[in-house]
Amino acid sequence: MKRFAIALAALAATCAVSTQAVADEAMAKAKNCLACHAVDKKSVGPAYKDVAAKYAASDAEKLATSIQKGSKGAWGAVPMPPNANVNAEEAKKLADWVLSLK
C-alpha cells in the first residue's frame, strides 16, 4: 500500500508539471507571444529554447521585464516591443516557462 501511495504521489507531481507547462504555453498563445516566437525555431524573434539556453534561471526577472517593457539589441537589430497585455505576474510565469525549456 505504501508503494502505491508513493507511485500515486509521483504521478500526481508529473501531471502537475505537465499541466503547468501547457498552461504557460497557452498563456503565450493568448498573449500573442507566439506571433513572433516559436518554442523550437527562430521566427521574428529567437526560439524560446535558444532564450532558455542563453539565460540562467536567475535571469527570470530580467526576462520578465523584457516581456513587459520590451528590449533592444539582445538578439540583433530587431527590437522586441513591449507587451502591454501582460501584467507583472504573467510576465514572471512566462519567463519561468521559457527558462524551463532548456
Describe this structure as you would to a colleague.
This protein is mainly alpha-helical. The chain is 57% helix and 0% strand. It has 4 helices and no strands. It has helices at residues 2-30, 48-54, 60-69, 88-99. α1 packs across α4 (88-99) and α3 crosses α4 (88-99). The longest helix is centred in the N-terminal third of the chain and has 29 residues, at 2-30. The radius of gyration is 16 Å and the shape is globular.
Main attributes?
about 100 residues, mainly alpha, globular
User: In total, how many beta strands?
Assistant: 0
Element-level helix/strand string: HHHH
| Main sheet properties | none
- Compute the number of helices: 4
Structural class: mainly alpha
Terminal-residue CA separation: 36 Å
Low-confidence stretches: 4-19
Helix content: 55-70%
Strand content: under 5%
Q: How many whole angstroms does the radius of gyration measure?
A: 16 Å
Global geometry: globular
Overall mean pLDDT stands at: 84
Can you lay out the helices and strands and say which pair or pack?
Elements: H1 2-30, H2 48-54, H3 60-69, H4 88-99
Task: Please give a quick description of this structure.
The protein is mainly α and 102 residues long.
